[in-house]
Specification:
Elements: H1 17-20, H2 24-38, E1 54-59, E2 68-72, E3 77-83, H3 95-112, E4 122-129, H4 135-145, H5 152-157, H6 161-181, H7 188-197, E5 198-203, H8 210-224, H9 231-239, H10 251-267, E6 273-274, E7 288-289, H11 295-303, E8 307-310, H12 317-330, E9 335-337, H13 349-356, H14 362-367, E10 374-377, E11 387-392, H15 395-400, H16 402-407, E12 427-429, H17 444-457
Parallel strand pairs: 3-4, 4-5, 8-11, 8-12, 9-10, 10-11
Antiparallel strand pairs: 1-2, 2-3, 6-7
Helix pairs in contact: 2-8, 3-6, 4-6
Length: 481
């Protein structure tokens, strides 16, 4: 059999901006520059008085949060750390951990210079892509509660457990960074001040998205006299842009996922071919490729979005999905393929992260993959908006498992491959069908196919001449998480 990973694209960290040739930091800088050129304030986005005008923008400045520094005409400043994807992770090397560490440095540098930090004149912004994990919103909401006054402990006690956990993580990162820079630990007032300075801001600068349209209108109206004229210079900037390096922290984890997928597709490759034993003259190495009538309809159904693949035991669900994964890789799609039988002790997402040896939560790693239309196959829950999720379970399990039905609401994409009574679930049914072949003595290959199919179907079949049907049985896949 040909190597399933021979044509696989490498998994690289980044965001959708990679496809357009413009890195995320440059996209954020472009949005800021559009406001500077148009002489329009940006402070309202970051919780400052929306009256000051930007005067200078520096990228890779080496101070503040390093990525972008924006100075304004009232002596206020906005520092931004740009990461396409970030989340509530404990690693100090994560985007969140690095951003808070840089904020700590700003605080300690100000103290060492005898300068009082003014929350009305400074912001420390973690700029993320629009589709970054929504867990960041919980931290943002918790920090905003401290804008209203109150101590660190009192404010935490009055909020939800999710917000308390988010503030605990913020504190953990802050204290760890502070310990490396100062012999004196941070006070509760220091933690409150850092939370007030900190902001999470989502940017959407792919062409046609809201921040792109805003920047385009400003440039067009203020510089060219027509809002419609702003797209051309932005497109030129994109054309001259460079590759995204905004989420390099995830590269190692993406490599681990790629290796796990390689191993799994190799392990299950036999589900896509019919083994032929005892025929040394057989010209097809590795067996006969199995073609199913459902292959093309399944591929088309996946194009419309996430779904659950169902079928009776032995219908060939695993084989169909392995074949789909191989086909997607062959055309350059990014594929992650995981099977639950490889993780027998996994019950929660954190356990899966540990089993895979990932430094970051799996969903965050997936969100760091550039591009859209990628496939996540075999029993994994929902991920970021750029991924298509395909889960495989038995028909019985979907009929009797409400949590499975609730996970994929909608209508079946192909009525010809739908199970009756499941019209409110996005699913695709791999049908239970047999294949046979001409089995005359001069054709040992056909004979082998016929007898093999009789064995798989567990029902006696004569080897009489027949036109082969295009779908076959294959071993049953594991049950889903």
């Amino acid at each position: 059999m040909a190597d399933a990973g021979a044509n696989k694209p490498p998994m690289r960290a980044g965001g959708r901006a990679t496809e357009g040739g413009m890195d995320f930091q440059a996209e954020v800088g472009t949005w800021l520059a559009a406001h500077l050129l148009a002489r329009m304030p940006v402070d309202g986005r970051f919780g400052l008085a929306n009256v000051a005008l930007p005067t200078t923008i520096q990228l890779e400045s080496g101070d503040g949060l390093d990525d972008i520094r924006l100075d304004q005409d009232d002596a206020s400043r906005v520092d931004l750390q740009s990461k396409t994807s970030a989340g509530l992770t404990t690693s100090p090397k994560s985007p969140l951990g690095k951003t808070i560490s840089q904020l700590v440095r700003v605080m300690i540098d100000a103290r060492n210079r005898g300068v009082e930090v003014d929350p009305a004149k400074l912001r420390a912004v973690l700029a993320v892509a629009a589709n970054a994990p929504r867990t960041l919103d919980t931290l943002e909401q918790a920090c905003r509660a401290l804008d209203l006054g109150g101590s660190w402990a009192t404010t935490k006690a009055g909020h939800s457990s999710a917000e308390r956990d988010a503030l605990d993580l913020f504190e953990t990162h802050a204290r760890a960074a502070w310990t490396g820079l100062s012999a004196t630990p941070p006070t509760d007032d220091d933690l409150v001040m850092m939370a007030r300075l900190f902001r999470v801001s989502r940017f959407s600068m792919n062409e046609g998205e809201d921040n792109w349209r805003e920047a385009s209108r400003l440039i067009g109206a203020r510089l060219y006299g027509s809002e419609a004229a702003g797209d051309a210079p932005l497109r030129e900037l994109r054309r001259l842009g460079h590759n995204d390096v905004g989420a390099a922290d995830y590269t190692a984890d993406l490599g681990r996922l790629s290796a796990a997928t390689d191993a799994e597709l190799d392990r299950l490759a036999g589900h896509t071919r019919l083994p032929i034993a005892g025929h040394t003259r057989l010209p097809i190495a590795g067996g006969i490729p199995i073609a199913r009538a459902s292959d093309r309809p399944l591929s088309a159904a996946v194009e419309s979005g996430s779904l659950i693949v169902i079928g009776e035991p032995g219908a060939g669900k695993t084989g169909a999905l392995v074949a789909l994964a191989q086909a997607r890789r062959a055309v350059g799609d990014t594929v992650v393929f995981l099977s639950v039988d490889r993780f027998p002790g996994v019950g929660i997402a954190a356990n899966l992260q540990s089993e895979l040896g990932l430094e970051h939560p799996l969903v965050e790693v997936l969100d760091a993959v550039p591009g859209s239309g990628a496939q996540l196959i075999e029993t994994l829950g929902a991920s970021g908006t750029d991924w298509t999720v395909i889960a495989s379970i038995r028909t019985f399990d979907l009929r009797n498992g409400r949590r499975f039905r609730d996970a994929m609401p909608g209508t079946p994409p192909d009525p010809a491959f739908a199970e009756s009574g499941l019209g409110n679930v996005r699913h695709f049914q791999v049908p239970l069908r047999l294949i046979s072949a001409v089995c005359s003595p001069p054709r040992p290959t056909s004979f082998a196919i016929c007898c093999a199919m009789s064995s798989i179907s567990r029902s006696p079949r004569s080897c009489s001449p027949m036109v082969p049907a295009p779908t076959v049985f294959a071993p049953s896949p594991p049950s889903p998480i």
